[in-house]
Amino acid sequence: MLELYILNQNVQMQPELKGDITWTTERRNAPGKLQFSVVKDNKLNFQEGNQVTFLKDGKPLFLGYVWEKSRNKEQIITVTAYDQMRYLKYKDTYVYKAKKANEVISMIAKDYNLKTGELSNTGYVIQKRLKDNQTLLDIIYDSLDLTFDNTKKIYTLYDDYGRLVLKDMESMRLDTVVDYDTTQDFSYKTTLDDVYNQIKLVKENKKTGKRDVFITKNTERQNQWGKLQYYEKVNEKTNAKAKADALLELYCKVNRKLSVQNAIGDTRVRGGSSVLVNFKDIGDISIKNYMLVEKVTHKFSNNQHWMNLEVRGRM
């Protein structure tokens, strides 16, 4: 059973739905999005900014706000709603010292009156940071990227029914299986885009007045693919060797992308989750491994639930 409610000036409405409902989440850089259509009648009255809640079989899935709506001559109103991650797309300037990434999120959420839930302790303390004229999301992801550079841990930020949460990727691993039996179709691609077999980091050395250069590489992969170099100028306080080693481990593998169409729906699956993918004999490999969900769109219609997935793995 699907339930959708719109709250306007303390009046809760349950409009008549028309067609499919889609719910989309991504691992990075995007808020959760709910799209649906409703039938206009004499009682239905709602505006941009009104709260939208969506539940399936009594389970809360989405809490957000009307962002966009359009109407046709048949008086069908099509609505796009976003969760509170959407408010992190606006810009500001932040200067902070001695904060962990989860503390940066708490700081920004407090400043912008955003609600938070469980924010995992990311451990690594960022000594000093100036982010000028950046989106709030970019400021947050900068802190998460610095955390990865120094801990090799990946975290996902998302809105969990009205509260910002931050979780370690390992804690978001599901028992959901994506295979020939649960999927109508898929598209598999391998690419050397975003693949690097040499990491070159430089940082200023105030004592010598020169730049220190840190290079780590995989000679075998350079012979196979040619030199694919990642270059970055890093802060003087960065552990450049540790970061270079972490980046080489992450990026010195063929980038494998898999798009899955109309898999059996599982509402637990969201951007940042890991699902077990099991496809034999596709391309140059057989896949039987956990892969990271970059994007998922759930489609609810006629008592059916399907999902389209974009998953990524470096195997």
Q: What share of the residues lie within helices?
A: 10-25%
Globally, the shape reads globular
The description of the largest β-sheet is:
13 strands, mixed
In sequence order, what are the helices and strands, one letter per element? EEEEEEEEHEEHEEEEEEHEHEEEE
The count of β-strands is: 21
Task: Work out the radius of gyration.
Answer: 22 Å
Cα(first) to Cα(last) distance is 39 Å
Number of helices: 4
Which class of secondary structure composition applies to the elements? mainly beta
> Approximately how much beta-strand content do the residues carry?
over 45%
Low-confidence stretches: none
- Summed over residues and divided by their number, the pLDDT gives a mean of 92
